Amino acid sequence: MNKKQKFYITTPLYYPSGKWHLGHSYTTVCCDAIARYKRLTGFDVFYLTGTDEHGQKIEERAAAAGKTPKQFVDALVDDIKRLWTLLDIEYDKFIRTTDDYHVSSVQKIFTKLYEQGDIYKATYKGKYCTPCESFWTQSQLVDGKCPDCGRDVIDAEEESYFFRLSKYKDRLTELLTKTDFLSPASRVNEMVNNFLTDLEDIAVSRTSVKWGIPVPFDPKHSIYVWIDALANYITALGYNNGEENMDYWPADLHMVGKEIVRFHTIIWPAILMALDLPLPKKVYGHGWLLLGGDKMSKSKGNVADPFVLAERYGVDSLRYFLLREIPFGADGVYTDEAFLNRINADLANDLGNLVKRTVSMANQYFGGTVNAPRSVAKDEYITAADALFNKTDAAMNRYSCSTALEEIFSFVSQSNKYIDLNAPWLLFKNGETEKLNTVIYNLLEGIRIVAGLLLPFIPRGAKAIFGELGLSSPNRLDNIKFGDTKCFKVGGGVVLYKRYDVKQELAALNKTDKEIKEEHMEEQVEQKAEITIDDFDKIQLKIAKVIACEKVEKADKLLKLTVRVGDETRTVVSGIAKSYSPDEMVGKSVVLVANLKPAKLRGIVSQGMVLCAVDGDNVVLISPEKSVESGSEVC
Ligand code: ME8
Q: I want to staple 395 with a disulfide (CB 3.0 to 4.6 A). Which of 198, 257, 403, 452 is the partner?
């Protein structure tokens, strides 16, 4: 049996230090589209993301919020996982640098490097940027300030362990200048000129930071955040710890924002050289999403909220905007207006109309059933449809989602023109049935190819298009060929993407942003405040018995429960699908928050919430210890 080729792709591990914004979504959605594309073209993909949870900044933020660092990061990790579910991100593993296996593996790496002389102890004197947790040399400062964030640096001195980075200068120079390890190539000069020319050893421990992994043989030192964070790419595969997935190493692609290219193309390969491990095949340093002319960033507070946008406009719209609007590698600007215009122009007008018009004509002229014509002469349109996979593939092999989408949407435009050019309504009027059949069939085939190629980018819409064509969506893209469909039985012509009134939406969005900010402030106050027994009394908890249960379509974490609460029957959506199967749930007694305001989840109105104990990914239902009537109060 042919073994599938492995493909290992990673996002950076994000700092859980504040609200998640569209910038994080950008990298994660790009990686998701690439991972999906690779799966659909026959690769065995491992897609890793996660959170980088140690360090001074997080310690400080947690203290300011009146929480322990762990409590503080736990809440943000829950949020980011919720965001990835919302955005249909299909990662294979979520690593947290506070996970035990990661901590012990990093300690072993540190000890090994120390024992072999790649790490040594000395005193560090330098310019330190507290927000970035980075030491800089004088020559790296820009106008005396931190080159990353532009803020003041301070003189700092401390006893540190150092990594002998300078030892790897020649190999690193060769890697960066003689191979295509770093893309886009335009970033290579910056690395070589700014960082490689006077490459110094770097401090890799801190005595001042308590929230970190202790150096095992000198625990007053914490392992500095970069060795801890970068090692995740191998610890997640089981390095030093069972090695269960090490055959995915070396990574095919580390996708990172341009501000951390330096760490991924200099420090990380040097650590791997010291560990005698193969190097990743590629680091891609993408550009920034800008808002108001500046990098969208938590510390600057100029962020767009992906939760608000995805909930209001749909996941596909947000994914599409991020993947299409930002030229890959370069910076891109986010404005609500550009976002709305993009959805209207591409998704609602071009794609939505193409599908709707074609399906309507198939219904009108052929009663919904369109058979393949007996013979089809290969014309310009068919040639373009057949070439589309190769064009998309070439773009995706360069990891350029924006170019791939440009190609696909250029064919969508060509398809719309094909309709106008062939005027099927005239063919119908003139009784040219055979030609009419060919035109509509060709269009449906063109749409099928488009829908297949769109699966990695806007999976929901693409699947909906297959539904409209009366076909199931394919699990491979590389063998889709024009003309393979024998017969289409089309749907009713649903509206795939709504067209928005931009002015009206801009007004509504501003209001939403403000409201959201206020809600968040309230949430924070609520989290800190103690509650009285009267407050608790407002919550009505009841025993409910599960009488039916099914999976919620396209939501791998959700189950739809039908429960009896006394004489009443209710529907409740619960995020327990990873821990319980629908069959297992039927017959169980659970605790229901019975007076929770109903909420719509994936189109289902959920009337209450089932209580669970949550321990990381382990979700355990709370059930009465002995049998008790459904509807009983829990107090
Ligand atoms: O740097 N535009 O974490 P971080 C595009 N923990 N991408 C953006 C963005 C923007 N405006 N803002 C953030 C760290 N990103 C380290 C990484 S890796 C072992 C450790 C994305 O939370 C982009 O991918 O600051 C960027 O590199 C990353 O978030 C930075 O995330």
A: 403
